[in-house]
Each structure stands twice: as structure tokens, then as C-alpha cells.
Amino acid sequence: MNIRKLLARMSFRTGVIILSLCIPCYIISFAQMALPISAGIKGILWVVFFGLAKTFQYGGLTILGVEGIAKLKTFFRKK
Questions:
Q1: Which pLDDT tens digit goes with each residue over 1-43?
Q2: What's the CA gap between 30 and 63, in Å, rounded?
Q3: Which residues lie closer than 8 Å to 29 by C-beta, 6 or more apart?
Q4: Where are the bilayer-spanning segments (predicted)?
């Protein structure tokens, strides 16, 4: 089955939730640099969490689609 078609069938709410999951992953990917662990482990953690953030970001955008992005823009403009 095509992953893009599968994601496109999901709801707007699911897209927003998945898109919002990229924020904590971005934060963790950079905040872990302050931990007292080896540079190799820091690199691995950065790759894992940054990759998750990008996956959530693009997956959420695929679920939302063009119409969903327009809805989000109008929602934030009203506030």
C-alpha cells in the first residue's frame, strides 16, 4: 500500500497531533547536547530525535494537505 495514500486518508485532527509531535523531538534533539555523556552517544541521539522530528513534520504535513494548511493559517490569523 502507498504510504502517502494511507496518510492522506487520516483526519485533520490526527494531522495536527502528529505535526505537533515534531516540537518535543526538536527540543530533545538539541537539549540532549547539555547532558554529560560521550560525543558519540550525543551524535546518535541527535540523529534519532532529529530524524523523528522530520518524520513527524512531513507525515503531519502530508496528512493535512493543502486544505489543512489553509485551515491552520486562518485559525492562527483569527487569534
A1: 687 777 777 888 888 899 999 999 999 999 999 999 999 999 9
A2: 26
A3: 45, 46, 48, 49, 50, 53
A4: 12-31, 43-70
The Cα 42–Cα 47 span in angstroms is 9
Q: Which pTM does this prediction carry?
A: 0.76
65, three cell numbers: 494537505
pLDDT digits (tens, 9 = 90+) for 37-74: 999 999 999 999 999 999 999 988 888 887 777 887 88
> How many domains does the chain divide into?
1
At 25, list the grid cell: 523531538
HEC readout, 14-64? HHHHHHHCHHHHHHHHHHHHHCCCCHHHHHHHHHHHHHHHHHHHHHHHHHH
Rg (CA), the chain: 16
